[in-house]
């Protein structure tokens, strides 16, 4: 459950970025990465944040495993997702403020 919530936090914070700078959010998971790439390409967010695309891509790729299928994971995997989500949220917060 913690992993699914961490993944949702990553996706929703990406939506916050795209809503703020592009005026829209993704309606499909594939769109989320495209919109993030557009943020970087159009320099609406600093290029230093471009590497966060990989985490977003991984989150979107694994979302159904943890959210819909209820895939079990150990404490180490859960901690990693929660840590990565926290870092992503911090990056988004610093972009938005």
Structure characteristics:
single chain, 97 residues, mainly alpha, 4 helices, 74% helix, 0% strand
Give structural notes.
With 97 residues, the chain is mainly alpha-helical. The chain has one domain. The chain has four helices and no strands. The protein is globular, with a radius of gyration of 13 Å.
Structurally, the number of domains stands at: 1
How many angstroms separate the termini? 30 Å
Encode the helix/strand succession as letters: HHHH
Count of alpha and pi helical runs: 4
Helical/strand content category = mainly alpha
User: In angstroms, what is the radius of gyration?
Assistant: 13 Å
Largest sheet: none
Q: Outline, from the CA principal axes?
A: globular
Estimate percent helicity.
over 70%
Oligomeric category: single chain
Q: Mean pLDDT, nearest integer?
A: 92
Sequence-ordered SSE layout with sheet pairings:
Elements: H1 2-22, H2 29-41, H3 52-67, H4 75-96
Helix pairs in contact: 1-2, 1-3, 1-4, 2-3
Short structural summary:
This protein is an all-alpha fold. It is 74% helix and 0% strand. Helix 1 packs across helix 2.
